[in-house]
Amino acid sequence: MMKKYLKILCIILVIALSVSMNINVYAGTYGELLDELAKAEKELEEHKASVGNVTDQINEDNATIKNLRNEIEAMKEENTRLQQEIADANIEIENKQEQTKEVISYLQMSQGENIYLEYVFGSDTITDMVYRLSIVEQITEYNDNMIKELESLITTNENRKVELANNEKKAEQKIEDLNTELAKLNQTVADLNSLSPSLESEVESQRKLVEYYKSQGCSNRSDVIGVDCAKTAANAMFYRPVKNGYVTSFTGYRWLCLKGECEWKFHKGIDIGSSTRKNTPIYSIGYGIISTIWNDNAGAICVNTQHLASNGQYYTAVYCHLSRRASNLYVGMEVTPDTLLGYMGDTGNVTGVHLHLEVYPCKLWDSSDKNCSNWNSYEKYTKNLFDSGSYKGSESVISFPSRTYQTWYNK
Questions:
Q1: What CATH number has the domain spanning 238-396?
Q2: How confident is the model at residue 4 (pLDDT cuts 50, 70, 90)?
Q3: What is the pTM of this model?
Q4: What is the 8-class DSSP label of residue 294?
């Protein structure tokens, strides 16, 4: 009993030390840890680049708005100038209209409406007649040109007014559109900046983690943490269920083929094999109690244990396909990492001798746990955890080699 409490005390002290050092629990190889750091650093750099790109676009839009406002001011000045030109033209038009009236009045007053003919035929010689005809033609042409010029001035001024009004309207609309775009870009920058502290914190946390495991003797990318280096209880929340073994299949999606039928399905557990096959003892993954002793519908012999982790979270471990259970097991029985639960086997729907192990943060078949109160809820809950990336099954809390068939020789 004293040995048991000493073990518990040691585990608590190591976990407390790792927490005080801000070190996260990690299971895998040192190389995978380096890859995670590189990934976090890349995400941070891409994030900074995104912020920079959006900021550049904001600066570009602000410059465009400034130029458009300058153009609008220039248009307004042009409008003022044209308004003056129009006013001057209107005065000129009025003057030409008066001149026309004066010419016509003069001609009408000069001996009646037939003044042109009387003027021409009143000549004494042919030379004088030609001269008088030339004068009449010049007066008529002057009148016609003056009318055309007046009409052209009026049309040009009206067209200028319409064109300037349209240009100003387009510029104002573009400014409005750019202001809308700026508002969205500024919100994007605000959203990106809100992520910066968490990304920077993630990178810093990963760096500390790498440094910590480096200080614990991890140097080669292939070093398995908790096996080849950093061999302390703090590197995994729980123990491996076998003293020697290897992973044949990890948690995740795969083709499952049983009795000739195959389907793409989520595999909730990790499969573990061993060279000692059915003689391989299966132990509890940690301190807790036996919560269920059961056989599934296909006849697989199973045992469940329940554990309370140091963070206050309950976990359920499911051990299936046992060849036989250990004697004297009962629900509610206290277990330790040295408690024998049974032996590796091939009961139920299997393709060979192995242990199917599931470890999830809930209390399976406990009515107080809405996520795992029944098997259907449990299957949905575990799949959602995996799909969200927040939890990867047994591998999240137990240190296993990262490659299949890589053998270990201690728990």
A1: 2.70.70.10
A2: very low
A3: 0.46
A4: E
